[in-house]
Amino acid sequence: MSDLTERIEESIRDDSLEIRNRTSGFLAFRNASKEDLFGELCFCILAANTSAEMGIRIQNAVGNRSFLDLDLDSLRCELHRLRCRFYNTRSRFIFSAREVSHILPDLVNWDDKSKAREFLVDNVYGIGFKEASHFLRNVGTFDFAILDKHITGMIAREFGLEPIKSFSRKRYLEVEALFLKMAEEFGLPPGILDLHMWKIATGKVLK
C-alpha cells in the first residue's frame, strides 16, 4: 500500500462529515440562479493559474450580479483594485463569458456531462479542462478530475511520471484517466476524491 493510499484512506475515515457537507452544498447549487452560476464560472476563471483563495476573495468582493452588470472598463478597474493577477486578461475573459450565461442553468443539468464540459472549454475564454471540471464539480457534477498542481504532483509521484507542468487536451485526458482509475479503486466519484486529495495537500477543504 502506497503512502498516498494510506493518507486517502485516513482522510476518508476522518473527514467524511466535512466532505459530505461540502458535497451537499455543491449539489444544492445545481438549482442556483443564472447570476450565481455565472459567478461560480467567474470564480473558476479567477482561480486559474493562481489560487482558490484569491478566486473566492475576489468573487465575494465583486459579487455575482456585478460580474454580469459591470461594463468592461469598470470590471477591469475593480479587479485591479482588488489586486487580481492578470486583471486585464481576466476582465476580458469574464466580459466575453457573459455570452454563455443564459445557458448555464440548463447546462449544469445536461445528462451528458462530458458534452457540458466540452461546451465550456470550446466556448469560454480562460476555461480549459481543469477549470470546466472545477465549475461542474462546484455545481454538483462529480464525474471529472480537477488536475491542479497539487493533484498532478500526487498523481505523478503515485504513478512514477515526470513532473506535469502543462497540458494539451490529449495529455489532460490521459492523466485524468489515471485519476479516474484511483477514484474507482476507492469507490469514490472523482470530484469527491479530489476534495480528499486537496485536503491532504493543503489542509483545507475549499471549493
Q: Could you characterize the architecture of this molecule?
A:
70% of the residues lie in helices and 0% in strands. It has 207 residues and is mostly helical. It has two domains: 3-26 and 145-202, Helix-hairpin-Helix base-excision DNA repair enzymes (C-terminal) (Endonuclease Iii, domain 2, Orthogonal Bundle), CATH 1.10.1670.10; 33-138, Endonuclease III, domain 1 (Orthogonal Bundle), CATH 1.10.340.
Low-confidence stretches: none
Count of β-strands: 0
* Percentage of residues assigned to helices: 55-70%
CATH superfamily of the largest domain: Hypothetical protein, domain 2
CATH class of the largest domain: Mainly Alpha
Which range does the strand content fall in? Answer: under 5%
Structural class label? mainly alpha
In short:
Helix content is 70%, strand content 0%. The protein has helices spanning 3-14, 16-28, 34-47, 52-62, 64-69, 72-81, 87-97, 104-107, 113-123, 129-138, 149-159, 169-186, 190-202.
Please name the defining characteristics of this protein.
globular; 13 helices; Endonuclease III, domain 1; 70% helix; mainly alpha; 207 residues; Endonuclease Iii, domain 2
Task: Give the arrangement of secondary structure elements.
Blueprint: H1 3-14, H2 16-28, H3 34-47, H4 52-62, H5 64-69, H6 72-81, H7 87-97, H8 104-107, H9 113-123, H10 129-138, H11 149-159, H12 169-186, H13 190-202
